[in-house]
Amino acid sequence: MQDARLRIASTFLLSCTAFSSVAGAALVFVWWTIFARDRRNLPGRRTAVIIFGTLALVAVFTSFVGGDGTGYFLRLSVVMLIAFWAFGGGAGEELFDVAVWAFGNRLGFDIGLTADMALGSLGRIEDDIILTRHAIALKGTTGPVRSLVPLGVSVVLVQIRRAGCQAKTLAVRGYHSGGTYVPRFNRGKEDYVAFFCSILIILALLGSFVSYL
Q1: Are 115 and 96 in contact (CB under 8 A)?
Q2: Do residues 200 and 19 make contact, with C-beta atoms less than 8 angstroms apart?
Q3: Among 55, 88, 90, which residue's Cα sits nearest to residue 74?
Q4: Does the predicted model carry a pTM greater than 0.85?
Q5: Which end of the chain is more exposed for a tag (fewer CB within 10 A), N or C?
Q6: 8-33 pLDDT, tens digit each
């Protein structure tokens, strides 16, 4: 999608649908195979192993305590695919545009700036994971399960430290709140088709719930 406003709206609708049920996740996966043609936004192999491996571990634990672990894994995996499609390429500038368009040059500027900085940090997570894995290997911790917890904690701490540095940089440069910015959006016919299909998917799911009740 070229229009960031339609992409974000579609992401919200599709994520809600996929998370609601396995049937909804299946419909969203079909949508993803049709409209998310750009696979370059997908994470690298190592990052994918960490993300989906974590989901698998949580699913196993959920099954162990009597929950629907398989359904959880399927639903969250599709939600992650939608997230990668929407934001995997680094959509910070687009979120900035949408925030200013929706909330104005004061509140919208602050929200957009926060989103831009957050996605910028997320874009560097894969590099952080690689460096942290090397550090853990040097310490003698082996095995994907044993290294998963220290890897996750280390990456989170790095992100927190980076956020603190960014905040200090903004303060030193005199930033307080708001700014002046005029967003621009491009759109094509496929944007409307994809957005309309995302609406149809969630309406179909709601219709099935109503008929079930």
Answers
A1: yes
A2: no
A3: 55
A4: no
A5: C
A6: 889 889 999 999 888 889 999 999 98
Q: What is the pLDDT of residues 94-133, one digit of tens each?
A: 777 888 888 877 788 877 777 777 766 666 676 777 777 7
- Rounded to whole angstroms, the Cα distance separating 179 from 81 reads 34
Closest to 32 in 3D by CA, of 53, 13, 52: 13
Q: Are 125 and 155 in contact (CB under 8 A)?
A: yes
The amino acid at 33: T
Range with lowest mean pLDDT among 74-78, 156-160, 185-189: 156-160
Q: Could you say which DSSP state residue 44 is in? A: P
**Hey, what amino acid is at 19?**
F
User: Which token pair is 187?
Assistant: 């759109």
64 confidence band (pLDDT: 50, 70, 90): confident
Rounded (5°) CA angle 119-121-126 = 105
Mean pLDDT of 196-203: 89
Cβ contacts of 10 within 8 Å, gap of 6 or more: 1, 86, 194, 195, 198
**Per the structure block, which two tokens stand in for 12?**
């919200």
| SS3 per-residue string spanning 95-135 | HHHHHHHHHHHHHHHHHHHHHHHHHHHHCCHHHHHHHHHHH
